Amino acid sequence: MERVVVLGAEEEPGCGVALALLQDGGFHVCVAVSDPGSPQAQKLGCAGAQVLPFHLNSTTGLQGALSGAQKCFFATKTDFTKVDPLQSEISQGYLIADACKQHGISHVVFEGGQHVQRRFGFPMRSMDAKACIGDYMAEIGLRKTQVLIPFLYESFLTTFSPKPAGPNLYKIDIPMGETPMDSISLSDVGPVVTAILKNSHRWAGKSCLLSADRLPVQEYAETLTKHLAPRVFQDSRISQKMFVESYKGEAGQDIGNMFEFWRKDPQRRNAAEMFELLSGTKKFSQWVSANRDSIINALEK
């Protein structure tokens, strides 16, 4: 049985990937976490994973986690509180790439990104960093697959929860205009990565652009209205400038630039390929129907 290591498994998307691999049963799953005593790590251990300590920003535990492994999944994190979030994440990724090369990992699947700054002249540091990491992995000859993750349905429960705008009226602040936006449920990312790791011969050296649905923001709003009546949802038609100015957090400009990138360069994501990898991939309407109570709870917070 092949040994697959999930680095940073206490956070998403790593945790979902680890759980999907465990559910598949075709791998010996090792999860590398910053705190082996955390509830998430204990949950993964109880599910059958081997739990090892690891820190994304240093070599601590990295050699031990990768020793004897054949495959690996990782997703670097952009820490916008750092003085230089871009370089910090790139260094993190290079460290992992070098260790995977040293240990002869036969297939690395990672959350990738695209060169936004290079192509359009404005930064989206999370994407730019991941693109640089992918370039470096190619330079050192790692056999890899990058997974490009679009907007997550679950974001409607957190960062992009619709905002009250009147009695039973909610507005969605996503600056996409009329341009359709690709999306997927976080719960489907893990099974897709598992399918890729099980089919290395097909996916090594390629990019997998995930998408389960592709709708303009107003259609996301109409879907929410259909399932959550008498509540009504609308696209606020917010501009990128207004979005950045109103965003509370360090990453406002970068997130605004992410939507601008998606508007200027709509991804050519292959839905048929997605459904081949995971036949049960959920459309947005299916996800809303299944998560109605969670969405209402998020709205009422």
UniProtKB/TrEMBL annotation:
<comment type="similarity">
    <text>Belongs to the NmrA-type oxidoreductase family.</text>
</comment>
<feature type="domain" description="NmrA-like">
    <location>
        <begin position="3"/>
        <end position="264"/>
    </location>
</feature>
<dbReference type="InterPro" id="IPR051164">
    <property type="entry name" value="NmrA-like_oxidored"/>
</dbReference>
<keyword id="KW-0521">NADP</keyword>
<dbReference type="Pfam" id="PF05368">
    <property type="entry name" value="NmrA"/>
</dbReference>
<dbReference type="InterPro" id="IPR008030">
    <property type="entry name" value="NmrA-like"/>
</dbReference>
<protein>
    <recommendedName>
        <fullName>NmrA-like family domain-containing protein 1</fullName>
    </recommendedName>
</protein>
<dbReference type="InterPro" id="IPR036291">
    <property type="entry name" value="NAD(P)-bd_dom_sf"/>
</dbReference>
<dbReference type="GO" id="GO:0005634">
    <property type="term" value="C:nucleus"/>
</dbReference>
